[in-house]
Amino acid sequence: MAFRNSLRAVLLPACFLMFAILGCTANSDPHIGGTVTVVGSWSGSEEEAFLAMVRPFEQQTGVSVQYTGTRDLNGLLWQGVAQKNPPDVAGLPGPGQMAEFARFGALQDLSSVIDVSQYKNDTVPTFIDLGTVDGKLVGVFIKATLKGLIWYNPRVYTIGAPSTWAALETDAQLAKRDSNTWCVALGSDATSGWPGTDWIEDFVLRQSGPDVYDNWVEGKLPWTSPEIKQAFQNYGNVVADSAGGASNVIATGFQDGGDGLFSDPPSCLFHHQATFMTEFFKSQAGARDGEYDFFPFPALDSRFANDVTGAGDLFGMFRNTPQSRALMSYLLTPEAQSIWVSRGGALSVNVNVTNYPDDISKRAAQILTSADRFRFDGSDLMPETLNEAFLQGVIEYTRNPGELDQILAQLDTVSRNNVTGP
Fold first, then answer.
1. Measured between alpha carbons, how far is residue 29 from residues 36, 63, 198, 324 in Å?
2. Fewer CB atoms inside 10 Å of the end CB: C or N, the chain?
3. What is the C-alpha R_g of the chain?
4. Is 82 exposed, middle or buried (0-12, 13-18, 19+ CB in 10 A)?
């Protein structure tokens, strides 16, 4: 096991006893002790899932995991780096911001921390590349999210999964009666707007393809180009047919975005959101199993029909201690990631994790691992300043669609002042 090999390098000659299956000799001592500080953006059920994930690690090593959640992850991490007091390990805001930390010298090279060959054997290749900066592995993924899913209530929408966007629009006209086609919600405190950026990224990839997507994200294709403008306009058409209109879209928190699927009568047919949304369907809307399902984002161009977008939770190490090394190694094991996956709403990029709790999770994992091309959330790959401008631009366009040209021109100005890409 990768974790056993990595931990032996830390604790020679001791071995780590985890889940009994690793096996240790009678003379071995699994105890490390001490603490490891962790900062992340998780709260609520996600925080509970992470703490459940690390509980076996704490029990077997004696290491106390001290987790702090924050809504301003990037700001808190930069503050810690500036004050020379960062956390031991942390969730990272995204590959773009990860690259900024790495090039500043704040992140540890993980090649001497984890079993890199095992990580590469176990991990979907795209995610390995996303954690690598200037040839050094500085970030690893402990869970993933598949984006671009179209959620619906099968008791309301009964026509079946459309294979094309044109078919979706036709089916919606037949099925929606007095409701709107879409529920959309952009609210997310300091990061409000990101659900709209997800929409635009899906439209760019699926109507124009991965080369256009990559050039746009890397700053090589202007925001004012026809491809990006069309993606914004397609998103605008969605907002125009959304429950409550633009003002409601801006004001509603993303966690409540799918509530209209389950209201009586329903206020919408579809909600575009990632795999994690199932948790909010249950906790926010009171939906039960069988009351929600999804189909993949319908094709806009058949050449890109099996391309997908997604994201993931990156972890990096700021301080090199026995405790942080051990935790980083543990988080990559199938045993650790299976704990989070088993709770629902999360996927793993480790191909050895298979204990998905329901058909929805299994289907989503199959789509993620069998896609022709995977592209990471574009806004998360952009430098922080451009990321923030994109979020604000989406909100402004949602509020004032007639100002699209000015919004895109402003995003071009911000882009020219930043170096994009990880």
1. 19, 13, 48, 18
2. N
3. 22
4. exposed
The upper half-sphere exposure of residue 67, i.e. CA atoms within 13 Å in the direction of its Cβ, equals 20
- Is residue 265 reached through a cis peptide bond, with omega within 30 degrees of 0 on the bond before it? yes
Contacting residues for 64 by C-beta, under 8 A, at least 6 apart: 34, 35, 36, 58
Query: Identity (one letter) of the amino acid at 337?
Result: Q
Concatenating the DSSP letter of every residue in 333-401 gives SHHHHHHHHTTSS-B-SBTT----SSHHHHHHHHHHHH-SEEEE-HHHHS-HHHHHHHHHHHHHHHH-G
Q: What is the pLDDT of residues 86-128, one digit of tens each?
A: 999 999 988 988 999 999 999 999 999 999 999 999 998 889 9
* Residue 13: cis peptide before it, omega within 30 degrees of 0: yes
The pairing of strands 149-152 and 136-137 is unpaired
Task: Annotate 73-90 with DSSP letters as a single string.
Answer: HHHHHHHHHHTT---SEE
Buried b (16+ CB within 10 A) or exposed e, 116-134: bebbeebbbebbbebbbbe
Among the listed residues 268, 75, 313, 85, the one whose alpha carbon sits nearest the alpha carbon of residue 172 = 268
